[in-house]
Design goal:
The chain is elongated. With 119 residues, it is an all-alpha fold. It has 7 helices and no strands.
Length: 119
């Protein structure tokens, strides 16, 4: 995926920190903070939405560790790469929304057919 390629250039330690998965928390951070510099400068008010979004799985120590990784990154934060990542995140969000819509349509079709296995 192109997003992972751009992220490898901008903040190489981000994916390994999240175990190479784009969780809701990881996507929220990328969408709202975008650059390692902005991630490094997150404050205590930034933590609470992340904790709630992750249902407590993103701990305060995770928050501090991510900020430290962002401070020490060797990534490039050129305007082009940050803009490219922003565009890719928007596309990812649109595709995710479309998938949700299609899943609802499939469920509606299945319930409309009312197969005996669901009864």
């Amino acid at each position: 995926m192109a997003l992972t390629n751009v992220l490898d250039k901008v903040f190489p330690k981000f994916k390994p920190f999240f175990k190479d998965r784009f969780s809701v928390t990881a996507l929220y951070i990328l969408t709202n903070y975008q650059s390692p510099e902005r991630i490094a400068n997150m404050n205590s008010r930034s933590y609470e939405p992340l904790r709630k979004l992750s249902r407590g799985r993103f701990t305060l120590s995770d928050f501090v560790k991510l900020k430290d990784l962002a401070k020490d990154t060797v990534g490039s934060t050129s305007d082009f790469l940050i803009h490219q990542m922003s565009v890719l995140l928007e596309l990812y969000s649109q595709l995710d929304s479309k998938i949700d819509e299609l899943e609802r349509q499939i469920e509606d079709c299945i319930y409309g057919i009312a197969p005996p296995i669901l009864l």
